[in-house]
Please model this.
Amino acid sequence: MQRSNGEHMGRVITITSGKGGVGKTTTTANLGTALALQGGRVVVVDADIGLRNLDVVMGLENRIVYDLVDVVEGRARLRQALIRDKRLPELCLLPAAQTRDKDAVSREQMIDLTGQLRREFDFVLIDSPAGIENGFRNAIAGADEVIIVTTPEVSAVRDADRIIGLVEAAEKGPPSLVVNRIKPRLVNRGEMLSVEDVLELLAITLIGIVPDDETIVTSTNRGEAAVYDHQSQAGRAFLDVARRLRGEEVPFPVLQEQQGMLERFFGIFGRRRS
Amino acid sequence: MGFFENLFGGRRDRSASLAKQRLMMVLVDDRYKLTPEMLQQMKVEIAEVLSRYLPAVDAGQIEVKILRGEANDYLKADIPLKRGQPDVG
Model:
């Protein structure tokens, strides 16, 4: 995006959820990596001050010198604090402070920071802390768009609804939704909320369906995004989310049931679909 | 319910539809703070108003739901009318 004065203006997109543990950080890391793989200049920002996590998920924890609070308080310049990804030169991380209080950053400082970042990058992805307090409000303060991550569980969907209300009240426009950790087998048996159920309840635009996938565990263990793993269903789903974010029309694939060995063995009898 | 149906996940009330129903209630409650008593009172009053124009409407048969739409939430009411009544006009 280009402003009339020729200044580059990237998109600031906050990833949030309300409930913790639904996959915000995994989504941010994979989406950031996917967008960079697709040719964008991307910075991912860990806005969870005091609970730094995005660095380990991306495998960059050993390279941190300065953090977001150092930049905001003027101890480091932005360029000094940005950490370049191991593989993708166009992907950077701005880590959260680990030792500071969650209130170490103000809303104005976050708006200023995202304003600086969008001049250098095409996509500024902000990993929001859980909750509906200051940390969350700071994380959406500078955002143009908000992505809400939920899982098909009652508590996560309820919290997502709260967050949608707050995002709309903050006039950030209608957020879009990633439904994470879908288990097609449970959905087919009627024992898990389907994506359609969640959409009917939350009534916002769908941008991603990510299946529950063991490869997320292994890729996180290694500190590598799942989008690199061609075997990873979740990785492919995140690549699709990135393409949709860039404006491509990407159909939502029908999720395949992941079968365990025993189930494959006994699969000839007993299991009913739909 | 047959043994096999039960064993392989037959017609028992599926937990997903239960979850959805409960969430419908909770989300509306979170947003509108509408208690069951208020909802009941609303049905009684709806029946009252409609009964002035239509064959008797039974408040007990009215189903009211608040649903989320894209731009707005909306209220959906199912109000059965008694059929086969003589002309009221």
Summary: Chain B has a mean pLDDT of 79. Residues 39 and 64 of chain B are 8 Å apart (CA to CA). Chain B is about 45% helix and 15% strand. The interface with chain A takes residues 7-9, 14-17, 19-20, 22-24, 26-27, 30-31, 67-70 of chain B (CB under 8 Å).
